[in-house]
């Protein structure tokens, strides 16, 4: 099978970038031919190691840079960018002749019509790595403009398969009258077979993610501030990068918590950081699949998460492998405090979490992705 993945970039440390890289590496080792097309990678390095057997082309066609221009110039640049993308993508499709084109991110909706127009006879699969609502976010004048002309909802009904990562997200697509929908979760990149050494770890809480408003690290920082004096030997380690870093560091300073909270650039060896931690916290307003929860569980540590749509509700069994919180700092603080003060129960939850995460091992989940891609070619 010849697979072509279309995604914005592979330079950010995030769930989509890790999953696409892992899938590409896996499929080429299984004998498939894989090509990845990006359009905003530019000269930035890969966040995760990509096999040399995977062919990668960047079209240097960054939609995200359009915000720099005034409205009318932005419209002109937009159409110019669409045309440039179409020409470059068509050449790749003609040269590679893929059996399946996989579109992996909401940003690519701006190019959906172009992809369909140059891919006659080729099967198209769209992966919903975010929530359904995020795919159709039309907040702001520019988003409404591009949405009006691209009409992505109309196009989604024309593709061969939509893959959702959670059952809740799949139901949203079905409610929208998408019938060609399948649920396949993301694989975890690592699974620590021996986590017995974690039993003696206390003192560190970990959070990982893009420093973006939707992740609500401000909520997490405020929650920790409510219990920081009660637990002065505990600290909160946040790993990530993004536009809110300066704002979040300001909040930490304002709350006089610089000695207990640190924000660090995300590391390639995040597994070792999970292994140093007692439990993981997700404070988001929404999540797609929330791969970081499964990563933490794969290292034998339980999770506390806001009960946000969609992933956490299907990953965390409240009181068994973690705790679910209301969408506010006060309740999140209460759940974090419970984890700290109930060491025996926390360790038991970590054991349960580790067993739960085994279902997301690569060798199990990758076969499901392969079957999904192959199903549209039959």
Describe the structure.
This protein has 378 residues and is an alpha/beta fold. 41% of the residues lie in helices and 15% in strands. It is built from 15 helices and 13 strands. The protein has helices spanning 15-29, 71-96, 112-117, 132-135, 141-150, 152-156, 167-175, 217-225, 245-254, 270-275, 291-298, 311-315, 329-341, 343-357, 362-375, and strands at 2-6, 33-38, 55-58, 100-103, 123-128, 161-164, 181-183, 204-208, 235-239, 261-264, 279-282, 303-306, 322-325. It has a seven-stranded parallel β-sheet with strand order 3-2-1-4-5-6-7, with helices on both faces. Strands 10-9-8-11-12-13 form a six-stranded parallel β-sheet, with helices on both faces. The N and C termini lie close together (11 Å).
Search tags:
378 residues; alpha/beta; seven-stranded parallel β-sheet; six-stranded parallel β-sheet; 15 helices; 13 strands; globular
Identify the strand order in the major beta sheet.
3-2-1-4-5-6-7
- Tell me the Rg in angstroms: 21 Å
Q: Give the low-pLDDT segments.
A: none
Query: How many runs of DSSP E, i.e. beta strands?
Result: 13
Give, in order, the helices and strands. EHEEHEHEHHHEHEEHEHEHEHEHEHHH
Question: What kind of assembly state do the chains in view correspond to?
Answer: single chain
Structural class: alpha/beta
């Amino acid at each position: 099978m010849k697979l072509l993945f279309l995604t914005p970039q592979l330079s950010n440390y995030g769930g989509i970038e890790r999953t696409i890289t892992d899938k590409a590496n896996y499929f080429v080792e299984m004998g498939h031919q894989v090509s990845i097309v990006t359009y905003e990678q530019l000269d930035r390095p890969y966040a995760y190691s990509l096999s040399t057997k995977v062919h990668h082309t960047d079209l240097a066609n960054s939609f995200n840079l359009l915000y720099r221009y005034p409205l009318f110039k932005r419209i002109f640049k937009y159409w110019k960018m669409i045309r440039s993308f179409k020409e470059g993508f068509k050449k790749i499709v003609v040269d590679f002749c893929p059996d399946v084109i996989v579109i992996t991110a909401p940003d690519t909706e701006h190019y959906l019509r172009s992809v369909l127009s140059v891919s006659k006879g080729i099967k198209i699969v769209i992966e919903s790595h975010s929530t359904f609502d995020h795919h159709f976010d039309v907040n702001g004048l520019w988003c409404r403009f591009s949405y009006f002309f691209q009409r992505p909802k109309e196009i989604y009904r024309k593709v061969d398969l939509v893959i959702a990562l959670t059952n809740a997200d799949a139901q949203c697509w079905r409610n929208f009258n998408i019938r060609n929908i399948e649920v396949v979760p993301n694989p975890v990149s690592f699974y620590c077979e021996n986590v017995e050494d974690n039993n003696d770890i206390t003192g560190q809480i970990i959070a990982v993610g893009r420093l973006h408003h939707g992740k609500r690290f401000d909520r997490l920082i405020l929650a920790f501030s409510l219990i920081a004096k009660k637990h002065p030997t505990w600290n909160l380690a946040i790993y990530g990068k993004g536009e809110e870093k300066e704002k979040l560091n300001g909040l930490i300073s304002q709350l006089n918590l610089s000695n207990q909270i640190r924000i660090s650039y995300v590391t390639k060896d995040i597994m070792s950081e999970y292994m140093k931690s007692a439990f993981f916290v997700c404070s988001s307003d929404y999540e797609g699949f929330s791969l970081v929860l499964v990563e933490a569980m794969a290292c034998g540590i339980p999770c506390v998460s806001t009960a946000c749509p969609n992933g956490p509700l299907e990953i965390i069994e409240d009181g068994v492998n973690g705790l679910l919180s209301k969408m506010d700092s006060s309740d999140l603080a209460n759940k974090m405090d419970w984890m700290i003060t109930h060491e025996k129960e926390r360790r038991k939850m970590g054991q349960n979490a580790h067993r739960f995460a085994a279902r997301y091992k690569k060798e199990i989940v990758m076969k499901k992705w392969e079957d999904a891609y192959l199903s549209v070619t039959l």
